[in-house]
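The following record pairs a protein chain with its ligand, calcium ion.
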Amino acid sequence: MKRILIVEDEASLALALEDDLRREGYAVRVVADGETAAREGASERWDLILLDVMLPRKDGFEVCRDLRRAGIQTPILLLTAKAHEAEKVMGLELGADDYVTKPYSARELRARIKALLRRSGADTAATYTFGDAELDFARCELRRAGQPVELTPLEYKLLAAFVRRPGRVLTRQQLLDEVWGSETFVTERVVDNQVTNLRKKIEPDPDRPRYIVNLRGLGYRFDG
Ligand code: CA
């Protein structure tokens, strides 16, 4: 049974979440303030933390940052009340894995939770398979039809970044931060060049990519 920590200070919302997720078969626990959330999140093993942003004592952004600084890797899904909070989530190096904007539908939230749990499972899995390709995380190796394909370290990191979030749009900036590091000053064009190189190694037809899809004006999405 997957264990979910719900951090929500609005009693009626917390109750609805608790009911809904219990019915879905999760073990859940509710806490209502940021300090308790930071303590609970760090002291017990959760499969996922559902974290409201506006909280008494400590807001969700701080809780998130605290947990990541403490080395806690548990997937965090932020519940943001406003669109500008959502933008902040994307812009800051908070370490949150995803966010949902309030008011959310119960169905949307359940879908996001499932996706996140699946993704974190993929993180700890030894390999990820798509088409005839297999990415081996332990050996940092890509194989196609069983044969090793040579990747540069950057190509490997880029592919791993995509594979960890299948179906999700990643902006060039997100990819830069994750693959090149937020301290380096390279342009977003570099991402495009590396994607082109990577496609030659993983796509059946690099001119008509089916795995790394370009979304004009948004970024890239891995459909593997
Ligand atoms: Ca709140």
